[in-house]
Amino acid sequence: MGKRRKKKGSIGKFIVFLFLIGIVASLSLLFRREIVSAFYPLFERIGLVEKRKEIVLYFSDQDGEYLIGEKRKIFKKEAPVEEAIEVINELIKGPRGELVPTLPYRTKCLNLKIDERGIAAINFNRVLSKEHPGGSSAEILTVYSIVNSLAQNFPQVKQVQILIDGKPVETIAGHLSLRHSIAPNTKLIKRQ
User: Fold this and answer.
1) Do 180 and 160 touch, CB atoms closer than 8 A?
2) Of 61, 82, 129, 178, whose CB count within 10 A is highest?
3) Within the chain, how many helices (H) and strands (E) appear?
């Protein structure tokens, strides 16, 4: 009879132990973002995670009239050019909230260079022009979402030259001349 009680007692303890593990696992899943953000600076200092940099990407508002900034974090890279490519790739992914994408989702950044004068030459695949929705407002917002996203995040970028398949283009959709490099236009940015 004593052995049976010991068995029942150890089974009960085991069930309680499993229950506690379940609670801890559930809480860690529910609050993992808070836990990670609380310990992130420590993890970063000891080199367990890559350092991140906050950037602002510019997407269209719902009316297609202005650009609105959306904050995002990217991994810090050794060279600003690598970070600039990451900014463009995040821009291609599109907004996370209510904003409207400014680039066709199959667009690819083939390469990007920043010269000593501060001109960023960015080379896209042909999808940028082939799958662009068209219209003057959409084209203007596409160009300036690229230009403003680069210039606002990288002070060394003063102007942007857009290339498609390695060649200068007249325009993306027939409304805005791209023969020369484009300077940022902060008047298109709507402050929230």
Assistant:
1) no
2) 129
3) 5, 6
Closest CA to 89 of 146, 133, 134: 146
Confirm whether pTM is higher than 0.90: no
- Quick one: how far is CA 34 from the chain centroid? 21
CA dihedral 106→164→188→65, nearest 10 degrees, is -50
Right CATH number for 52-188 from 1.25.40, 3.30.230, 3.30.300, 3.30.750?
3.30.300
Tokens of residue 24, six digits: 């801890």
Instruction: Give the model confidence (pLDDT) of 130-159 as tens digits.
Output: 999 999 999 999 999 999 999 999 999 999
Which residues, in sequence order, are CB contacts of 23 under 8 Å at separation 6+? none
Three-state secondary structure call for residue 182: strand
Rg from Cα positions in the chain: 25
> In this predicted model, what pLDDT tens digit does every residue of 119-131 receive, in sequence order?
999 999 999 999 9
Strand partners, 119: 159
